[in-house]
Amino acid sequence: MGAALEIRNLHVTVEDQPILKGVNLIVRQGEIHALMGPNGSGKSTLSNTIMGHPAYEVTAGQIIFDGVDILEMEPDERSRRGLFMAFQYPVAIPGVTVANFLRNALNARRRMTNPEDKGIPIPAFRKLMIEKMDMLRMDHEFAGRYLNDGFSGGEKKRAEILQMAVLEPQIAIMDETDSGLDIDALRVVSEGVTTLYGPNLGVLVITHYQRILNYIKPQFVHIMMDGQIVESGGPELALHLEEQGYDWLREKQNGSGK
Ligand SMILES: Nc1ncnc2c1ncn2[C@@H]1O[C@H](COP(=O)(O)OP(=O)(O)OP(=O)(O)O)[C@@H](O)[C@H]1O
Ligand SMILES: [Mg+2]
After folding, report:
1. Which atom of ligand 1 is nearest to the CA of 177?
2. How far is the CA of 120 from the centre of ligand 2 (A)?
3. Is 39 buried (19+), middle (13-18) or exposed (0-12) by CB count in 10 A?
4. Which candidate in 29, 73, 92, 128 could, as Cys together with 148 as Cys, close a disulfide (CB 3.0–4.6 Å)?
5. Which ligand neighbours the alpha carbon of 43 most closely?
6. How many domains is the chain partitioned into structurally?
C-alpha cells in the first residue's frame, strides 16, 4: 500500500472567517487529481492548510498523511515526510543557489528517514542533479542560479519541478491557479508532471483553467464551491465545466437547499 493524503471533514477559518466548510478528499500515490472551482472558492486555502501555513486555522477535521495526523506539524516537517507543495507565490532567496537549496532540502528529507544520515556527498549530489536535469531536459547552468532571484514564471516552475524530481515526494500539491501561467510556465509544469508521474507519485493539481488538463491528464476531477467539494468525477467533468461553466453546479446547489 502506498502513502495517501486524506482530508477528512476539514473546516478552516482565515481571520475568523469560515472558508473551508467540510472538505473530504483522498489522494493516493500513483493518482492524479485535479481540483477546480471559481475564484475565491477555497482552493488555495486548502493547499495552504495542507502545508501548514500559520494564517489558516483548522477548526474541525483532520489531515492524515501516510497514516499520520500532520495538523500539529510544522510545514518543514510535512515536506520532509514527503508532502510537496509548489507555492502559488514563490519567494526569492538571495545568495542561495538552486543546487544548494535542493541539497539542503534533500539532506533534511534523508535525515527524516535516518537521523544518522551524514548528508549526500557533493559528487553524488552533482550526479543526481545532472541526472534529474537531463531527465527534465533542463540546462545544467540552471543549478547555479540564485533561487527565484529574477526568475521568469517559467523558471520558477522549472525550479519547483526540479525540486520535486530531487526530493521524490509521495504526494505533490501544485497550486497553479493564479501563478501567471504563461505558455512557458504551463509547458514546464505539464511536461514536468508528466515526466515525474508514476506509481510512487500522487498529484493534486489546483487550477481553474481547463487548458492545463489538456496536458496533465487527471484520473479524478473535483469541483470546489464555497468551501466544499460539490462534485467529483473523471476527466469528463473538466470538459463539461469548460462547456457549461459553473452555473449548472450553482443551480444544483441551490436546488438542494444549500
Ligand atoms: N490569507 C488570507 N487572508 C485573508 N483572506 C483570505 C486569505 N486566504 C484566503 N482568504 C479568503 O478566503 C477565500 C478563499 O480564497 P482562496 O484563495 O482559497 O480561493 P481560490 O479558490 O484559491 O481562488 P483563486 O481561483 O482565485 O486562486 C477568499 O474569500 C479569500 O479572500
Ligand atoms: Mg488560489
Report:
1. 27
2. 35
3. exposed
4. 92
5. 1
6. 1
| Cell numbers found for residue 41 | 472558492
- Mutation to probe ligand 1, out of 12, 44, 177, 205 (largest number of atoms < 8 A from CB): 44
CATH number at residue 186: 3.40.50.300
pTM of the predicted model over 0.70: yes
Q: What residue numbers bound the domain in which 75 lies?
A: 4-255
Per-residue confidence band for 233, with pLDDT thresholds at 50, 70 and 90: very high
Give me ligand 1 centre to Cα 51, in Å. 15
pLDDT of amino acid 179: 53
pLDDT one-digit tens code per residue, 15-62:
999 999 999 999 999 999 999 999 999 999 999 999 999 999 999 999
What confidence score (pLDDT) does residue 10 get?
98
Ligand 1, closest atom to CA 41?
A: 21
